[in-house]
Amino acid sequence: EDDLARLREPEIVYDQAASEEALAVAENVFAGLMDVELVGRPGLQYNIWDRIATFRGVDSLLLDLALRPDFMHQTARRFMELAQSEFRQLEEQELLDPHPILVHCTPACSRELPADDFDGTVRFKDLWVSAEAQELAQVSPEMHAEFILPYEARLLAPFGLNGYGCCEDLSDKMPDVLRIPRIRRISISPFADVARCAEQLGDDYIFSWKPHPAHLVGNFSEGRERAYIQRTLDATQGCVLEMILKDTHTCEHH
C-alpha cells in the first residue's frame, strides 16, 4: 500500500520551440497541397486499468480484487487522481484540441461540441473523452460496478460527451455503463451479444459495433461475412449504428 504514495503526478511540459519547428517543416513540405495547423492533444482517453496492469500484471490485479479489495480501491482511486492531474494540466496550459478527428478509434463527430459558449479556450466540456477496462472483461457485473465505474465515471464526468468500452464484452454491464454522465458512444465488441446490447441501447446512444477482424484473414468468405454483418443490421434496427473495422493486423503479409 505504501508504494501508491510513490506514484508521482505526471508533469505536462509543452516544448513550444520544437512544435513551431515541426510546424514550419510541415508547412514547407505540404505547401500548395494542404493546409497545416498546430493543434493540441486530440481524442482524450485514459484507461485506469491499463495503467494498473502495466505495474501489477493482470493476474495479480484480478486476484487482488478478491483478496485485497481495499487495496484495489486505493489503487484505482490513485490512478484516477493521476489521470485527473494529467487532464487538468492539459486544460490549464491550453493544450487541448477542440476538433479532434478521432476518439478511441472512432470518428469524433458531434454538432454539440464545442459547447455553445466556446470562446476559443478549450475546456473539458468542449471535448469527447473515453475510457475502458479490457483487463477486467471477465469480472462480474457487480465487481465491475464496484471497482471500475465509480472511478471512471468521476474521471469522465467533466467532459462534454463520453465514450466507453473497447474489446471487452459489456452485454451484462450495460446498466452501470449507462450511468456515466453524458455517455454517448458504447463500444460493442466482437464478443458481445449484439441483440441484447441493441435492446439496452435503443436509439439513445451510438451503437459502436466492432466486427471481428479475424474474419478478414485465412479462408475469407464473402458470403459468411455478408451474413455476419446482416445479422447485426437486423438486430440493431432502430439503433444508431456505426461499424468500426479495427485491429486489422495481419501475419500473412497482405
- Total DSSP E strands: 8
Rg over CA atoms: 20 Å
State the helical fraction: 25-40%
Side-by-side strand order of the widest sheet = 1-4-5-6-7-8
**Broad structural category:** alpha/beta
Walk me through the structure:
- With 254 residues, the protein is an alpha/beta fold.
- It is built from nine helices and eight strands.
- The protein has helices at 16-29, 48-56, 58-67, 69-92, 141-147, 149-156, 174-177, 194-201, 222-235; strands at residues 44-45, 102-103, 106-107, 128-131, 161-164, 183-188, 206-209, 240-243.
- A six-stranded parallel sheet has the order 1-4-5-6-7-8, with helices on one face. The protein has a two-stranded antiparallel ribbon with strand order 2-3.
- Helix 7 (174-177) links the parallel strand 5 and strand 6 (183-188).
- Helix 2 (48-56) packs across helix 4 (69-92) and helix 4 runs parallel beside helix 6.
- It is globular, with a radius of gyration of 20 Å.
